[in-house]
Write a structure and sequence with these properties.
5-stranded antiparallel β-sheet, alpha+beta, 356 residues, 18 strands
């Protein structure tokens, strides 16, 4: 299987399957001398870990990370950093019933058409289990970016239910199981998601990620556009079906004078009066906050039967048992943060290499 690596100077390769003995990643291009411990990584993995509330998959994984290489005396050495996370709570028997049919909304059909066979145990490499590796890599990316750059995300829509942006609080994000910045919306979402789960269904979500503290100048104006690489990285996350940056699709309804981010002199360079561009102009960071949102589809693994076919082409009804997220977008928040951090770290190293 090809294309398991992304990045240019900060390069991340992930490996492993959902129900294999372990998953992990190798990060190449990590600068030497940066402080890094397993505890640093574990903090962020715990934010994504399943089984932490009734609203996510009840798979009980400790997601304990081991640093296998690239670190000595708690500092990076400049050599590849290899990380491993053991799978300790696999239940492959849960998937026996679907090994000979194609689940609608899943990669079962396309994987088998491409490779000639598939790992039906929890979707193998197509499982969102792989995203734990991305979160681990994102911790290393944050080390490259430094403490002055803050990358954080929040769930701003669940199904058809939106937050009240006037009530936005980053403190609230850490105080509810949905990473929701609107405390009142988070409370209402509890009953809503319970109802969805009891109905044997699932819902999608929209996540917003913001990155502050970045310098102007990251990105390249043609094929290395910062927004293009961010969009590609986010679209590589399981179940993501759309990405917008800044005003995004809303920009289509604006007039030119309204969409333009007007500028005035400031004490430390230009002062922007708005941020419809999401912190990126011509593919290059402007120094404003990077703002992007991405849409995650409803979880395809649901107990409600859906018409499908089996491997012989016969009509079947596909229903998925086992342990699944009624809204996979919840645990996509730390994954989105990590992918943004990885892209920004790569772009920062490339900027230093070319421009000093």
């Amino acid at each position: 299987m090809s294309h398991n690596t992304f990045g240019h100077l900060f390069r991340v390769t992930t490996w492993g399957e959902s129900h294999g003995p372990a998953i992990g990643c190798v990060v190449d291009g990590m600068p030497p001398g940066l402080g890094l411990t397993e505890a640093d990584i574990q903090h962020w993995l715990d934010r994504r870990r399943p089984g932490q509330s009734r609203f996510v998959s009840q798979r009980r994984e400790a997601d304990h990370v081991q640093i296998l290489s690239g670190v000595f005396e708690d500092r990076t050495t400049g050599t590849p950093v290899s990380l491993q996370i053991d799978n300790t709570d696999t239940r492959s028997a849960d998937y026996e019933a679907i090994k000979d049919l194609y689940r609608p909304g899943h990669a079962d059909f396309t994987y088998e058409r491409k490779y000639g066979h598939r790992d039906w145990r929890g979707s193998g490499r197509a499982s969102a289990r792989e995203t734990a590796c991305r979160v681990a890599a994102g911790v290393l990316a944050r080390k490259v970016l430094g403490e002055g750059v803050v990358v954080r995300g929040a769930l701003v829509q669940m199904g058809e239910r939106h937050i009240d942006r006037a009530a936005w609080s980053w403190t609230a994000v850490e105080e509810n199981p949905f990473w929701c910045p609107d405390a009142a919306a988070a409370t209402a979402w509890e009953n809503y998601l319970d109802e969805v789960r009891r109905a044997g269904s699932s819902v999608g979500a929209v996540i917003e990620v913001q990155a502050s503290g970045l310098p102007a100048g990251l990105g390249a104006p043609v094929y290395g556009k910062l927004d293009a690489e961010l969009a590609a990285a986010i679209m590589s996350i399981n179940a993501v079906k759309g990405v917008e940056i800044g005003a995004g699709f809303g920009a289509a309804a604006l007039r030119g004078e309204d969409n333009a981010d007007a500028m005035r002199p400031g004490n430390d360079g230009p002062k922007f009066l708005s941020n419809n561009a999401g912190g990126i102009l011509g593919g290059i960071s402007s120094g404003q906050d990077i703002v992007l949102r991405f849409a995650v589809k409803p979880t395809s693994s649901i107990p409600t039967p859906v018409p499908s076919i089996d491997r012989r082409g016969a009509e079947v009804e596909a229903a998925t048992g086992g342990r699944h997220d009624p809204c996979v977008g919840i645990r996509a928040v730390p994954v989105g943060e990590a992918m943004v951090a990885c892209v920004l770290a790569d772009q920062l190293l490339r900027q230093r290499a070319q421009c000093g």
